[in-house]
């Protein structure tokens, strides 16, 4: 067994074990068993990850074949695995405090471990149907996590909305698969690409894939589940959903489009158009939000837009820089949005949850938060400023890379789009800046004055992510080994 | 497979998907929504079987359909579990009443 096989297997096999250990723990009066088992499982998964990553940098992509199905760990798969495992581990540490008082923790940690494993597998799928199976498994494990607070009506509503929309999306993907299968007689993405031609059937299949996977990526107008799901889930899960799950959907969409790659150019245009739409709607809707987590959820929409522009430019013009920028932004967004949700969640926990209230955290609640919770207020400010693209933080670097790649195409329309994206980035400060303002310049609100102490376990992941956002801003080439191959893998798949 | 069989299959799958989509839009009871979703997925199953047959890969198409049945059942189970929880917490299965709860 190679390290790659273990990388996929460890979280998948650990999930039921975590559940059983947690079950045993809650019956024999050791409620900490579930979280320790969950955390241990994710930490163990780092060993095969490091070995697989070393193997990848020296020997290139590794392939694992079981029967007729095969998985390939290429640059994109490795990037997604790093993101899923990294954020998953931080969320597990964070949730040891955040979820400590909740029932059914064994389900939470088992599902979290499963979600990480499934996303690692999803990134490596090379076969259309295999991809669908991983995608569906990711959806199922995330349904349960979104509706985790099963006695709260708003979180049930979010869960129902998410389930129905995702399930319809996955039917569209199945129809697309059926069309491709009927035409080519194969499901292997590389073979499909060889057979692809400019025919109405492939265009229709591409459209179906855009709709189907687009639900999970939250392409406007298939995004309506996202603000509910991201704001109602437990905060650690909001970070996972926003930081990794939508990115995983995007990787799935790109892999499938690359399979229909005979039409690479037109897909690039569609990606860019969705990018522009996502930025506009995400930013405009975020401006109106009063609840912090809903605001962050809408800002995820606009960030998907930036990624789509970078990836679309590179698919359209065959330029590696755009793809690398897009992948870099994917990674940065995972960290920045992870930090934002974890910091907002820490405040939600101390101000509301730990006092037994499931009220949402509003912007007004945050007034004067810096006076009582200086570190978390700093973390949230840093995260939103990085998301807004303030140099020299991480978000600026990846946006800049995308904009430069766009400008280098010397295509008037793309340059207009890049300028528009830049303006959008400035517009986004209109809702990020008030958050910072309210935390630092207002007198403490009643909620802040009555808030509990900040638990240490929540501060550890927050500190790690702060370091990540700042260090990557000053030293963006640090993760070049991850984003470079991911960008090239994308272009190679599209035949660039 | 003859063209007639294929035509019947395609008409059948379009009918199933039409019923499913209409149901999703028209129905307000959460359990019925999940039933509509199931009908929609059954259409997609038929599409996979038809695609396998049309491309001469009968086994492949049917094994895909069998896999989809498994995954889709899990989705239905989760959906119905949510419906039970909605009924317990909110006291109704009406989807619109659930949506109105939001502040």
Summarize the structure.
The complex is a heterodimer of chains A (496) and B (103). Chain A has helices at 3-27, 32-59, 75-98, 105-124, 128-146, 153-184, 189-195, 200-217, 226-232, 235-259, 264-287, 292-317, 320-351, 369-372, 374-388, 394-407, 412-441, 446-450, 456-474, 480-493, and strands at residues 62-66, 69-73.
Q: What is the number of independent domains of chain B?
A: 1
Q: What would CATH call the class of chain B? A: Mainly Alpha
Residue-averaged pLDDT of chain A, rounded?
Answer: 91
The major sheet of chain A is characterized as:
2 strands, antiparallel
Low-confidence stretches of chain B: none
Order of helices and strands of chain B: HHHH
Spatial order of strands in the largest sheet of chain A: 1-2
Coarse morphology of chain A: globular
| Helix proportion range of chain B | over 70%
User: What is the CATH topology descriptor of chain B?
Assistant: Helix Hairpins
Alpha plus pi helix count of chain B:
4
**Structural class per helix/strand content of chain A?**
mainly alpha
Order of helices and strands of chain A: HHEEHHHHHHHHHHHHHHHHHH
Oligomer: heterodimer
Shape of chain B: elongated
Based on the coordinates given, report the CATH architecture of chain B.
Answer: Orthogonal Bundle
Question: How many strands appear in the DSSP assignment of chain B?
Answer: 0
What does this structure look like?
The complex is a heterodimer of chains A (496) and B (103). Chain A contains 20 helices and 2 strands. By secondary structure, chain A is mainly α. In chain A, strands 1-2 form a two-stranded antiparallel sheet. In chain A, a hairpin with a 2-residue loop joins β1 and β2 (69-73). Chain B has 103 residues and is mostly helical. Chain B has one domain: Helix Hairpins, CATH 1.10.287.3510. Chain B has helices spanning 3-26, 30-54, 58-90, 95-100. In chain B, α1 (3-26) packs antiparallel against α2 (30-54) and α2 (30-54) runs antiparallel to α3 (58-90). Chain B starts with a helix and ends with a helix. The model of chain B has no long low-confidence stretch (mean pLDDT 90). The chains are: A mainly alpha (496), B mainly alpha (103). The interface between A and B is large, with 34 and 41 residues.
């Amino acid at each position: 067994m190679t390290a790659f096989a273990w990388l996929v297997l460890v979280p998948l096999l650990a999930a039921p074990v975590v559940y059983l250990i947690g079950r045993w723990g809650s019956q024999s009066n050791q409620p900490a068993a579930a979280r320790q088992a969950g955390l241990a499982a994710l930490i163990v998964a780092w060993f095969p990850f490091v070995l697989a990553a070393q193997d990848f940098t020296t020997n290139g992509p590794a392939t694992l074949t079981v029967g007729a199905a095969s998985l390939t760990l290429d640059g994109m798969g490795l990037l997604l695995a790093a993101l899923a495992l990294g954020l998953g581990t931080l969320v597990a540490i964070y949730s040891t405090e955040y979820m400590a008082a909740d029932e059914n923790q064994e389900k939470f940690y088992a599902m979290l471990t499963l979600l990480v494993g499934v996303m690692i597998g999803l990134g490596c799928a090379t076969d259309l149907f295999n991809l669908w199976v991983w995608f569906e498994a990711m959806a199922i494990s995330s349904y349960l996590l979104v509706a985790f607070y099963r006695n709260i009506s708003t979180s049930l509503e979010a869960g129902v909305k998410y389930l129905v929309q995702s399930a319809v999306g996955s039917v569209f993907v199945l129809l697309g698969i059926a069309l491709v299968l009927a035409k080519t007689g194969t499901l292997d993405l590389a073979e499909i690409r060889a057979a692809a031609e400019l025919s109405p059937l492939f265009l229709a299949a591409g459209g179906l894939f855009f709709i189907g996977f687009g639900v999970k990526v939250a392409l406007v107008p298939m995004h309506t589940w996202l603000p509910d799901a991201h704001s109602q889930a437990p905060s650690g899960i909001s970070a996972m959903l926003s930081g990794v799950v939508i990115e995983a959907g995007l990787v799935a969409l790109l892999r499938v489009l690359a399979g229909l790659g005979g039409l690479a150019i037109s897909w690039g245009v569609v990606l860019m158009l969705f990018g522009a739409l996502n930025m506009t709607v995400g930013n405009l809707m975020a401006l109106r939000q009063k609840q912090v987590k809903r605001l962050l959820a809408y800002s995820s929409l606009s960030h998907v837009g930036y990624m789509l522009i970078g990836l679309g430019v590179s698919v359209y013009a065959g330029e590696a820089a755009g793809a690398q920028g897009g992948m870099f932004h994917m990674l940065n967004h995972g960290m920045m949005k992870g930090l934002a949700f974890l910091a907002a969640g820490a405040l939600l926990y101390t101000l509301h949850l730990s006092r037994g209230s499931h009220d949402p955290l509003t912007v007004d609640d945050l007034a004067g938060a810096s006076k009582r919770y200086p570190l978390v207020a700093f973390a949230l400010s840093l995260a939103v400023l990085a998301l807004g693209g303030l140099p020299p933080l991480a978000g600026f670097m990846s946006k800049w890379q995308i904009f430069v790649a766009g400008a280098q195409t010397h295509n008037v329309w793309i340059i207009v789009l890049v300028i528009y994206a830049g303006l959008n980035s400035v517009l986004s400060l209109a809702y990020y800046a008030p958050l910072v303002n309210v935390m630092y310049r207002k007198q403490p609100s009643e909620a802040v004055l009555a808030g509990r102490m900040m638990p240490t376990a929540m501060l550890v992941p927050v500190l790690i992510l702060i370091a990540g956002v700042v260090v990557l801003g000053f030293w963006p080439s640090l993760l070049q080994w991850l984003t470079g191959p991911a960008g090239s893998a994308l272009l190679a798949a599209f035949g660039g | 497979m003859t063209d007639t069989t294929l035509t019947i299959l395609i008409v059948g799958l379009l009918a199933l998907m039409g019923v499913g989509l209409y149901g999703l839009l028209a129905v307000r009871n959460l359990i019925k929504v999940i039933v509509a979703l199931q009908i929609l997925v059954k259409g997609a199953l038929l599409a996979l079987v038809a695609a396998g047959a049309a491309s001469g890969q009968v086994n492949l198409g049917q094994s895909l359909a069998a896999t989809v049945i498994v995954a889709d059942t899990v989705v239905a189970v989760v959906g119905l579990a949510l419906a039970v929880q909605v009924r317990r917490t909110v006291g109704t299965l009406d989807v619109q009443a659930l949506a109105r709860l939001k502040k």
